[in-house]
# Entry
Amino acid sequence: MKRQILTSLLIASLFSAGFGQRRIIHLPDLPGYVTLKCDFHMHTVFSDGIVWPTVRIDEALRDGLDAIAITDHLEYSPKKDFIPVDHNAAWKIDTAYARERNFILVHGAEITRDMPPGHFNALFITDASLIAKDSVWDAFEEAIKQGAFLQWNHPGWKAQQSDGIPRMYDIHKLLLKKGWLHGVEFFNDTEYYPLVFTMCKHYNLALLGNSDCHGIISEEYSGPANINRPMTLVFAKVRSHDSLKEAMFAGRTMVWFRDILAGKEEYAKPFFYQCIAVDRPYFSDNDNICFEVTNKSDIPFYLINGTKDAPPYINLSANSVTRIVLSRKVTSPLVYDVRNVLTGEKDVLKVELRY
Amino acid sequence: MKRQILTSLLIASLFSAGFGQRRIIHLPDLPGYVTLKCDFHMHTVFSDGIVWPTVRIDEALRDGLDAIAITDHLEYSPKKDFIPVDHNAAWKIDTAYARERNFILVHGAEITRDMPPGHFNALFITDASLIAKDSVWDAFEEAIKQGAFLQWNHPGWKAQQSDGIPRMYDIHKLLLKKGWLHGVEFFNDTEYYPLVFTMCKHYNLALLGNSDCHGIISEEYSGPANINRPMTLVFAKVRSHDSLKEAMFAGRTMVWFRDILAGKEEYAKPFFYQCIAVDRPYFSDNDNICFEVTNKSDIPFYLINGTKDAPPYINLSANSVTRIVLSRKVTSPLVYDVRNVLTGEKDVLKVELRY
Amino acid sequence: MKRQILTSLLIASLFSAGFGQRRIIHLPDLPGYVTLKCDFHMHTVFSDGIVWPTVRIDEALRDGLDAIAITDHLEYSPKKDFIPVDHNAAWKIDTAYARERNFILVHGAEITRDMPPGHFNALFITDASLIAKDSVWDAFEEAIKQGAFLQWNHPGWKAQQSDGIPRMYDIHKLLLKKGWLHGVEFFNDTEYYPLVFTMCKHYNLALLGNSDCHGIISEEYSGPANINRPMTLVFAKVRSHDSLKEAMFAGRTMVWFRDILAGKEEYAKPFFYQCIAVDRPYFSDNDNICFEVTNKSDIPFYLINGTKDAPPYINLSANSVTRIVLSRKVTSPLVYDVRNVLTGEKDVLKVELRY
Amino acid sequence: MKRQILTSLLIASLFSAGFGQRRIIHLPDLPGYVTLKCDFHMHTVFSDGIVWPTVRIDEALRDGLDAIAITDHLEYSPKKDFIPVDHNAAWKIDTAYARERNFILVHGAEITRDMPPGHFNALFITDASLIAKDSVWDAFEEAIKQGAFLQWNHPGWKAQQSDGIPRMYDIHKLLLKKGWLHGVEFFNDTEYYPLVFTMCKHYNLALLGNSDCHGIISEEYSGPANINRPMTLVFAKVRSHDSLKEAMFAGRTMVWFRDILAGKEEYAKPFFYQCIAVDRPYFSDNDNICFEVTNKSDIPFYLINGTKDAPPYINLSANSVTRIVLSRKVTSPLVYDVRNVLTGEKDVLKVELRY
# Structure
């Protein structure tokens, strides 16, 4: 009894896709804070990127971000035969564009030197041109004078560290001593540097993850695997530029890239518990108790090393309700390691499911 | 300064996609009710479908439904040379399967006759075999005896109504007179019947929308346009079989298909306001006030016919924040028609945005 | 007997996606000619586009094109506060880039005036700066002096023709009289202008279809419907810049946009027959003859108005083999209209399937 | 000069997707042979599958296959409470369905025993019921009597071989001695068994790769990675059932799964050269010669271990033209290993690019 197919006149695509709307990313807030989704490292035609600065805001809105910094290289201007060097150009072009869109734009620039010290983003600055100094130390000094948050970029980038291992040189230690280094990229583009976690803990620095995008975000972060763009999650008091800045200096950050979340346990633990809800058992008999765990977030959680007699691993898919069949033999607390929530160079988050 | 690409060892797809998880559909509840997502019309190999009954539950979980009814034809068994006729087979096979998965299975069957009266689903029955009677009236009587909710299927199906216009014949009026008709399909597969809206209002019947799927859900409702499967939204007191049944008989339903939502205004209006939130202005000057409208649901809303001097139309994309730039010339309330929320045969929902 | 899932160590994505490769578009050549896939209208940061000129070549290679022209506006330079006006900039930047990639770059510019005469692309020029004259007629004259092919862009664009109907003004007639107008855009971005077909036939002009892209090709031409970018097909003697130019002036073009192919019958007919192959019957009995039609191209063909007793319509999907069950009652030739191959303002291609 | 967007009335989706069409897979033939794309292992509701037998043909046509065998288990009928056991049911249901669609259906059944001997598909049989014997040897004997091609299924399946290593037991050796074993699955579902390559070479058996699908092909072989279903390529004299059978017994097969192709060198080498074409140099200077390699097939080729001074690896993407920049320092033949074309347990194909 094959159905006759009659295509009714429906109204799909009556309206265009909605230029400039901000997608909702499903990530929870922490108690007392709002979670801002940020990318603090990207380029435009004003250094070695290939897009106009407004593109970076359009991309960010479409991807659900709250804030970006455009960080064109101060020392590298390969398009200067066609575009005169103006280190504040992207900022000038995007300031009003961001404000009209209720979007937070952070004024930034990339100090681009050989290792040591490597590359640094100066964020929350007021005039990038003044930072373009011959001496890197002068550049640091000027940035700090402007109130900058200094972010060490991709410290294990093989083009600058052939073995891929981040190293603290004297100049980094001097920055630390003066309190001028505020954060380090744990994740950049397709790379991450486990050792950075130890650095950030030891020196009390913010953990950062950024795209460092030179090309087109939608072409680099989609494809068959449909990977989200990397982002730094910042726990700010309110959704504003100044509150974002305060949170960054206070180090209240986590990093999300692919299906991995990384952050200090003091943030990772409450964040995980805000993402999930364990419901009351819906069925039980002599052998088993069945209950559901709801993961309201866009991040999957891979639970491994389950308590004795419990399921050895559980995949809490993003935006899904997962059923758990628990043997009555399990009497101790139901604890797991969350394989994809990193809390240290070699540590993952440990959680308990209370049903 | 092209980035060196180093593919780190990430853990994507360490775990499988999570067999049997229930996706979260982002639709709000109404005050005092929980919104159950349901499909009350589908087939299996036990009539003219092509899949085993458990497939229907796996599909429904993956698609985020709370309840389904499998409604194999009582009078049409094209596979009987290979499969002996058992009108309760799908129910027997799926009962435990549903319970283990915390999924609501409604016992159903399709009474399949020429027009009049056409096809009817008997839902919430206890024994489909007893309903397989020679006389359609005997079938109705037995269904009602079992406590059935009687749903008139695709009343404008051209194979039975060559002009596509639903018509009440004497037998339908007799059903109505006895209080035996409880709902009508407004949407079925790819068809919808505007006139059904008027019928449902006039006779106080539940509006229903179902897939009537014979094939494979993921192949029929995805494709280039990535259309969601049609569903009946039922506003139940709690998430349970009995509460679902109570809500159905009380007519607390809406229908969602493609990007269209349909339902009586008493449900459509509060549902819309639960989906959206109008935020306080983030920017204003002498000419304009700028504010954001958040649509937390998976349904886009197409606003048209705006108040004088306001934007004539606004697309509140699903799961998105939309910015609205409002001229200060607008002093009357900001009202719109919601083009894709149908509240009658020729009516759409009227809403006001209070900023 | 559920299968155990063991993910073998496979090598997918061992290598990156292959920067700079040219995708093969499956379109046939015409006897004696090679089919070049071209887009003769697009913008960069050097006028009101948002990408660097090399992006246009990268996009074109990925999409399988053989040739493009970058046609930045001569009279519209909204980025001039940041980028000094140089009408040849994109050409200078892309010349070597194209040559290294075996890609044909056509030197172009868009003469951008109010209607009349509207917008014109000058193609195959030698110095765009010389064409930037105050008087549009001086601009035309200089372009022609450089050997330009003059293409009238989007003649029914509502921003310039409020009723959307292309009109020949005196200046257009003068161009025609002097032999200075060589082609007209039948398709531009999301618009097409049926009347242009009649113009092109009457005045013997080339029919053209282009993207007029200002943004990012992969974002504008993909999405849910996965629409290919529009292109002009040029039937050239060989795959070279000069041969392309000769073919353009000779008017040997067709236009492909979405699932529509448009062109004069002298090209459309042999092109269709190069796309398909009718195989010998694989089955027949007293009632029917069954045979297959292979469509080797990336364009679907929608056949309608079939001969009496034949299937009334046939969808020859792209890259597919379609089975046809033909009644023995059909004795006349099997002819169809190809609904999506336009050969005139109101005409579609008529074809015969010889089985 | 942002473009006005006017959605013209286009005709996309005027016609449905074309039920029953066969997609073209772009794979070349070998000289003297036609390449048939086949899957010789799958299940339906008549054993432990979940779909009706016609679904398997619809799936195969859509995926571009030429032939399948449905191989329901002879000894495992978990649905027998609802479906009486008939080992020929799928064959009876699909025979006419296949013929009408010009599709090759191979009569098959799976002999399903503990290891040893494990599972075997009997292909090209005439009556599956007669093969359902208590003794596995009797089953083999009857299958051979019917002219069967005997295929040993997933010999390293961990459910039967806990270490995953295929082993020849006495019964296998006896089969070999009698000439009753004709092929072995090198690939099954998501597993492959390198050792099988050595077995097939040593005993002169056909290498086979199949889906062993129990569920729904489009759900198992698509997803984020968009993986094609596994298939056995058979080099037959013509596209017919009997020619397929002849080719299978002659061992003229290769296996394609994910992005891996596997087969004996005598087939793999000419197959590779039929897929690619090396074009004449399009550019050269004192340092380099630039030429293009066209890969006309749907299989990418990953070339590694390039000749000294040549590019160390080249990714010849599927359906793409790849540019190669070759240093003039290279004077020896340009040879590569093709990383994803397996010609033995530990061997990959070696090729030369002649430009």
User: Anything to note?
Assistant: Chain A has nine helices and 20 strands.
